[in-house]
Amino acid sequence: MKALVTIVSATALLLLATGSTSHGRPTVGAPCAGQIHANPGFERGATDWTAGPRIVVFGDAARPAHTGRAYATFAGLDVSRSDLLRTTVTVPADCDLTVRFWVRTTTTETARGDYLNVGLAVTGIPPKTRFSLAFDGGAQWRQYSMSSGTATTERTATVSFLASETAGNGVTTFDVDDVTFTLS
Fold it and tell me: Between the CA of residue 27 and those of 23, 24, 30, 53, 181, what are the distances in Å?
């Protein structure tokens, strides 16, 4: 009898520990909703981003952010160099990721030489440059968007902003703000 009580007690403990019942596990709500990046507007600096030096700017009254007080800025030095900013997020199975971002361009350039290339790399899909922005982007904030599409498996998506500047061709500055990562 003592052995039977021990077996029944062990079974009850196992059910409590695993949360399982004979009816199966409860279903989880759809994960395909909402903003998934913790620092889309750079308000916490480069947290959750891989960024080169001096990319995130705080509180510049002469060049205000799109919203908040911070944004990322690239180039603007009239030297031959590149700046890179990127982040990676997880896209759950059967979800589509839409990335929206705002860009402002100021320049003294008269011919194409400075670029901001925006790329999206998703697991299982070759990396692709989605936008190649140049000096003619405009001094007002403009919004752009790109999407990952859906897949039946979980994936990672890496968004990258790569600015390339050439010396002696004029100065171009690219500002990026409010990079949202929304699941649907």
Answer: 11, 9, 9, 45, 25
